## 1
Amino acid sequence: MTDYREAAEHSKAWPFEEARKLLKRYRGERGAPAPKPNGEPMLFETGYGPSGLPHIGTFNEVLRTTMVRHAYETLTGNPTRLVAFSDDMDGFRKVPTNVPNQDMLAEHLHKPLTQVPDPFGKFESFAAHNNAMLRDFLDQFGFDYEFMSSTEQYQSGSFDDTLKLVLARNQQILDIMLPTLGKERQATYSPILPISPKTGHVLQVPVEIVDAETGIVRFEDQGEMIEHNILSGGAKLQWKVDWAMRWTALGVDYEMYGKDLTDSGVQSGKIAKVLGARKPEGLIYEMFLDEKGEKISKSKGNGLSLDEWLRYGSETSLAFYIFREPKSAKQLHLGVIPKAVDEYFQFRANWHEQDAEKRLGNPVHHVHNGDVPTDTIPVTFGLLLNLVAVMGESDKAQIWGYLRQYAPDATAERYPDLDELIGNAMAYHKDFIAPTLHRRKPEGVEVAALERLDQELAGLADHAAAEDIQTIVYTIGKEGGFDNLRDWFKALYETLLGSSQGPRMGSFIALYGVSNTRKLIASALAN
């Protein structure tokens, strides 16, 4: 692989801008940037709440963090780690509506998720089920990561030294947190959430520190004041305190999070400082929006799921879309997929002709970590969608037949990406385009223009060049009495394809075939 280190030092691509923050995190002699002390790997982290299944937000966060990790490795050659951390010791607050055994789950509310039985009956706990789904999910996309369970870290004692610090500096943490809370919440707030020895519940109760060094606290449990050891799994911490404790205990250097957690990041950063650590470097990214511009919500079910994108577009096109402008809100709905797919392949083709500096600014460089595929595809996804639309009910073999008329060497073996896209296009057409198609009859000057187009096409070979056809279409539009050339192309789309938007007509006719296009024109004129 080409050495991009020199170009990376000046690249304005956001993963390199983020990675350069890490160069300044540790200082050597005379304040010069230095690796992490003792040769330790730079630690990147992503968090996951296992009360639900992985989703497109999970993919987004791990993907973007991985891109920064690779950028840092390019800049330095230093070792790195990526930890996917599951907050599986959280209390089970609400029974999801999309799982079986609702009544059984309701009996285990307020227990740590790792103590709630798996409603699917496959794993030792609900958290174990969802953790397995997370690992399968990340493995599916080939992410390089280490899975880490909150419960295992608490119960093994790995967090004990930092928990003692939390107890010893409890008042300083309260001084940070209490001003951010309402009066009612202030009265019961404690950084420590003890696990009740009586019920196994994660308790939200005021806690008195008895002995910070041994981890002994006092609190009321079912009307009785008891003393309890919070170490080795005897308690967990409130969310913002837990985040800061984790950063401190693990030595996290980089973690990005969404704009909705901006305030949490500020408070957790202050708490980390109280604990003698530093807040990780990181990017605060904007949230995804649906087609109405509203924030995507799992509970609302608006927006686009990961499975939906992968039904209609490739994984690499999603990664390409996610890469771009992370600090800007992005709409995520079915309508963005075709453009993202075509732009991905366009940028992929361009990458091989670019110098090192431009390659590092090209999104596909980060999608493929510099190992960008060399093969291209002979048609755009948009053109493929139009072909599928006019063919109606068809199978892959029939579509490949048309493609071979346009590109004689087109086979699934030679173009595996195109073979996948054909399946995506068929699904997208069936679910999203077909219900909206309506071919209207031509009107006014459109009739004469279509008749002339048919006459011109009659004089061409069936496999005429796309550019020659495009010239004919363009000339007819210029001479056909249209107020605006766009009106001619819109008329072609609406009368022949049934849509208000469409492809470059020369390319479409070359792909679909001159004789087949003449049949479309005849059908339109017959109306």
Note: The domain at 445-526 is CATH 1.10.10.350 (Arc Repressor Mutant, subunit A).
## 2
Amino acid sequence: MFHTILIANRGEIACRVAATARRLGVRTVAVYSDADADARHVRACDEAHRLGPAPARESYLRGDAIIEIARRCGAQAIHPGYGFLSENEGFAQACAEAGLVFIGPPPSAISAMGLKAESKRLMAAAGVPLVPGYHGADQDPALLAREADAIGYPVLIKASAGGGGKGMRIVHDAAGFAAALASCKREASASFGNDAVLVERYATKPRHVEIQVFADAHGGALYLFERDCSVQRRHQKVIEEAPAPGLPEATRRAMGEAAVAAARAVGYVGAGTVEFILDASGAFYFMEMNTRLQVEHPVTEMITGLDLVEWQLRVACGEPLPLEQSQLRVNGHSIEARVYAENPDRGFLPSTGTLAHLRTPPAVQFTVGADATGRPAPVRIDSGIGEGDAITPFYDPMIAKLIVWGEDRAQAIARMREALTRFEAVGPSTNVAFLGRLMRCRAFAEADLDTALIEREREALAPRSAPPSVTVLAAAAAAVLTAEAMPGVATDPWSVADGFRIGVPLSRTLVFTLGEATHAVSVGYGRGGWTLRAGDTQVCLAALRRDGTRVSGLAGEARFEVSAVHVGETLHLFGTDGHWPFGYAPPLAHAGDADDAGGSLAAPMPGKVIALMVEAGASVRRGQPLLVMEAMKMEHTIAAPADGIVETLLYRVGDQVAEGAALVGFAASAPTPA
């Protein structure tokens, strides 16, 4: 086994590798950018070295600097994690030339599978089924359009060198092909430095099912079953589960054997994932191979009881695979939810900011092993983020991976629902509430899965519009009142804030805001406790208790228990009903919430202007694209909110803009008289 490895990555994967290495007695070295100087992965390792400024190109993508640090600290091997340089053939080759073990496949395998078009040709030769499409080197837009017409719409344009949903567009007709191709090529170039694309038939109601493969340097290769990753937004995975629901054993075996054939075809060594499209008929087609460990690997670990990072380290040391295919078994069901700093109600735009409050459900972290009964931990969390850390625009906005295990899928879903109700995050927007709605969605519960599930279940997944109940308002009032006056806190009778008055009892009004709605709650102080009135309803508050942030009590006959967190002028309530961010005394201002057709358009997120679609003085129609922004390597088009005139363009291509910054001076046209 290695004595020292350098982890050339950040976030939860760096923490995950460090945890396994520590258990094996292997010393670890972290690298970090200026944005990550105090990050959890830096503290998780035995030694840490600065790479450079925050942008990845100046830090985590500097292979030469990483190798030099590895030499200085005496590392024998480099673990690339996923993302950044993990699938970079040149970096893997440079490691070998420096006498360092790259904990991953050989450079030749990365090269073979790195370009989707080339990998498709190899897979066809190996007998792996392929989706019909164009995978050629000629990238003339006119040729690509003709190929799309020949394939038949809808088609999928994909970056040949890409992954993670970047540089990917579904095109439903010939009229939209040129614009989608141009956007896809821009995004591919920005993300991967290569704008080549391929065009494939887009399967209707497809499932995304991938196979975890492992191979050693002695000719051994096997598959560790499958994961269903169909629940996606913007072609990026949100929910992953293993095993894939409803997959016949014969299909599982055929897919596994095809995945192993794919790995053998390129001389693969280490952990890899072969991704397939599974159509409604049960036929499957090779999509791509990720030559690294995947973000969703924990669900495979939970159902097999195997530590895939340990397998990576042992195979990289030259050891044979520890098990044979016939020894592998599936135990139970596991689901992983990716908790992101993003706003699902605004098209899943990434969100940034400091996590002022972060509480997670009781769980183990990075733990693979089972208990004495053979059952894995019911809840696991893999995260490289802690309370007080900042989500920046420089890297992926994932906060944590929430993983659950159950005896069967129904139990796993129930555990995920419960775990999500106890996941509390304050600061940037998160998708926690959206994930909870996904777990309660009928289509997901019944395993009616395909990659368009989120889009077709949009209505069921929309946020609630009902106002807070009296019980929720009572909980908010209780949070305020218990913070002001808990029995036993005061040290003298003059400091007791219990509302005592000689004569007329004290009555006051607490004003809470939620969005644009105002909720006035009248509280009466009496000898027997508090009386609360909201609208036409009056209840007594009783049995109030506070333990840290946890507040519980009775509102009439209804019992409540919430976590109450004050951040600035917002009272955040977390409970089984979800997350209620109340503005409280004084109310939060909501200037700018409503769209204004005149004046200026604001940036919906921090990012960079990458294309201007109009010039100053241009007359435009409602919905016409004005400019394109890029954030976290994803493109977002800013469109005209109404018919009007573009008076000024406030930024140029390449300029960085902050969230909320005015982008365009815009004057709406006067309505035409009837």
Note: Confidence is low (pLDDT under 50) at residues 586-597.
## 3
Amino acid sequence: MSSSGTQEFGRVRAVFWPVHRHELAMLVPMLLMFFFVTFNYNILRVMKDSLIVPAAGAAAIPFIKVWVMFPGSLLLTFIFTRLSNRFSRDTVFYSMLSIFLGYFLLFIFLIYPARDYLHPHAAADILQANLSEGFRGFIAMFRYWTFTSFYVMSELWSNIILSMLFWGFANQITQVSQAKRFYGLFGVGVNISGVAAGFFGMAVSSYFGGDHWQGQMTAQILTITLAGLGTMALYHWITTRVLADQEVSAVKEENQEVRGKMSMRENIAALFKSRYLLYIAAIVISYNLVINLVEVLWKDALVGLYPDNSDYNYYMNKLMASIGIMATVISYLVSGNAIRLFGWTVTAMSTPLILFVTSLGFFFFLFVQNSQFGYEALFGAISPLALVVFFGSAQNFLSRVAKYTVFDATKEMAFVPLSQESKIKGKAAIDGICNRLGKAGGSVIHFSLLITMGSFIASAPYVCALLMGAIAIWMYAVKKVGNQFSIMSGDAKQPLEGERPALVNGMLKEQQQAV
């Protein structure tokens, strides 16, 4: 049997469904669970932008991500760690999910209806009269603080529920040979959920119409709540019905023992003790930095084209459905097979390459839009704003497709060869802190340049230069992780240059101990 675990499958089945019959009891509920979690993620990702951007403007996003979201991420990671030290994994899972679902219900039934009384417009007007134009995003964040809280909780669903809870659970119960076959299928699940969420959002927008934004939000949050309850039910089924054999029980006991030692300080210490984990952290930080740098500029142009909440929401859901359709095809036919055929490094390197090419295109048209050498002669009657939005959407489309098909699968697979302690502590530090640090870093760049230069257009050349530097660091980290992953997972076809097999085995043991 090959290391990929697909040698015994036929050629067609190895491509489309490389799963043993006895693995279905675990894989099918995991796929459904992943579908529900990512369905909510996709719905919330559009809702938060549709709520905050038309009201506060895209300039508020960098301030939110630095001054509210990053501290919020640290707080929820701290809560996750404290709960993990005192309670079982099951209790932690249900508790963290309940915190999010409870907030969303509280928001739509109490906070949002009272928004006019809760928003400090008078104090915000005073700040606006006394601060420079560069602070307009900060003032908008403060003025619409209830929208800010919704934006933060929606964004943190990805970090806490998707990355830390679901992927942490998946990595603990999945072996390396299974991960190479299963994680590509998980990519199919997230992409199908994107299609479903996109069409659902468009249907809700069409049903309620543009004048009933609160009705649209209520319908979507109630659906999110049902999907969250379904996630809990599936988790309960897996832990009580599927994971009952002695081998998995031993893993659960080991996980519990490790969790009893968890603390924020130890999680960060574990990260800095391992170059392997530091390289994974560099990949995660770079990805989020690059995405954030481009996305804020694109959303600033997009809200100019679609200033109404409902129109903005409809466009974003339509784009999300298109991303899901394309990503589903690619994930099902390409990503899982790419890892098996070309290896981890080549597959992981495709994401920074895609973002490099698409970012070049986006910034080119952003600069051409404001150039002096005859825009009309090049593009005729096409609106400059519409063209920038189009290429920004194309960049967002391709980058999201890459994320959902290869980035998430390769990143999560990189944790699998590690010890249980390293998986838990390293993943908690990377997903809980580094993930948010990348977005906060992009936001610091944006709001620093906004305060200094006053507009996104003036700061765009500097943003472009920093983005290219981040992509270069990302590619270097991918190469380093790929080299060590091949050794630890047993995929290296030959010893490292100048090293004997026994020495490689010894290095593997040292790596596991160091981690």
Note: Residues 21-40+167-514 form a domain with the Growth Hormone; Chain: A; fold (CATH 1.20.1250.20).
## 4
Amino acid sequence: MITSLLIANRGEIACRIIRSCRRLGVRAVAVFSEADRDAQHVRAADAAIFIGEAAPRASYLSIEALIGAAKAAGVEAVHPGYGFLSENADFAEACAAAGLIFIGPSPQAIRLMGSKSAAKALMAKAGVPVIPGWQGEAQDDASLAAAAGALGFPLMIKAVAGGGGRGMREVLDPGAFSEALAACRREALSAFGDDKVLLERLVARPRHIEVQVFGDSHGAMVHLFERDCSLQRRHQKLVEEAPASGLLAHERQAMAAAACAAARAVDYVGAGTVEFIRDGAGQFYFMEMNTRLQVEHPVTELITGLDLVEWQIRVASGEKLPLAQQAITCTGHAFEFRLCAEDPERGFLPSSGRFGLFEVPPQDEHVRLDSGFGAGDVLPPNYDSMFAKLIVQDATRESALVRARGALAACHISGPSTNIGFLRRLADAPEFSKGGYDTGLLERSGEALAKAAMPAPAAALAAMIELLREAAGDEAQASPWARHDSWRLGPPAARPFSFAAHGTEVTVHATALRDGGWDLASEGQHWQGRGRLLDASHAEIQLDRTMFAVAFAHDDTSCQVFFEGLNVRFEKLPRLRWRDDNAASQGSLLAPMPGRIMAHFAKVGDAVEAGAVLVIMEAMKMEHHLRSPHAGTLSALIGDVGDQVEQGRELARVTPLAD
């Protein structure tokens, strides 16, 4: 068996591979970029090697740097993880040329399945159903527009070399085709270095169902059941479950057989996933094959009890598959929730920064958290926004979903904005709870789920945390003049605590009571409050007759409160405030996060309409369109295409039209 390997990846998947290596006694060597010097995967590995700057092309996408690191470490093999170079045939060939075992399929299989057009042709020949579409050689605008017209709308534009939801656009009518094509090409070129596209008929209300397959070099091929990956936003998966709900036995068998046939057609060795689209009538079509381990592989591990990374290492070592098909069983039901640093209330804008509180539920045979981060770690803006995966398993779908709700409620994570509250609301959504949903669920209901309500006691709890922290800090101060608890000669005065959360402002007026408690008043509601700090991040607070167990994260500008499965981040508002409307009046467009300028859509001096796209940025693997705030004249463009910019940097300015 392989005794040492280099992990050509980072974050959660690197930590995941390290755990399997330890169980097998395999030496694991990590690599890291400038942004990951202090990352958990670097600390957890047996050794770690620096490979370059934070930009992926200078580090995790540099074949030369990774092969050099493998040679320097003296390892036998390279595990690519997922993302980055995991489906890059040139990288697999470079490993072989350097005398290294590539833990994955052959370069030929990667190339065949990496081209969506070639893969579809091959699958059709192998008898696997494919979606009607067009995958011709002509790539000019006129030819593609003509092909789209012949195919009919609605349709899907897909990058030929795409994957992971990137380089894909739905087009509902001919008028939107040109803009969608340009965006698809631009994203595909940035992500895959290839802007070729194909066209497919858009399947109405589809489900995205995929089958895990595994092959060895001795001719064996098995499947490890299917997963439902239909809960997606912008073609990026958010929640996966296994097995898929609502399928009939013959449907499962047909999909599994088609997946194995697809893998055999390319003599596949290792872990792979064959992805299908299923329409409302139960017909399924081949979509693509991912020639790597998938992000969602843990749900398969929890229903089978198998370690897929261990299987990868054993197969790459030349061993036979550990189990035959009849010995692989499915037990219970599992969900995976992707925890991402993004703000649902701001259009899922990616976030980055240092994690403060990082509390997760205890892990056991039912609950697992895969992450490459913890309290105090920094999530850099250079890579994907996913920082952890919460995976739960139980005997039935219903009991697993109940367990998932509790586990999500127990996640108390502060620092970057996260989607945990959104996922908690999604877990309660009736359409998701009943199963059998399609990929349009979040498009139909995502906006409502993204808007978090502010429960009435939340602001009162935040005010109590402020008061309790002040009291704990002032115990040693004997002089009443140094206290901040409203003490004065005469009747007690009410202290205002003003906060902003979820786009609204709220003020809590707190008045000290003689018994040491507080009278709290806000928005016409009153509570009698008292409590105690348990430590720097936890408190017991009683409002009237209700006792709350509260976790919190506190700094000079905010107070984040976690209670009863809810999470509210309050920005503290100073008592004396003024507004700076200069930027708004000038029509400045500011970078919403660190990122790279991808394109300009107007020139200085052009007349622009309100809402017109002026600048496109790329950050954390997503495109962000910055639009004109009003009609006017584009008076400034700051920065060039390709420039890396910091959050808050002014990128454009629009002078409003004179009245």
Note: The two ends are 77 Å apart (CA to CA).
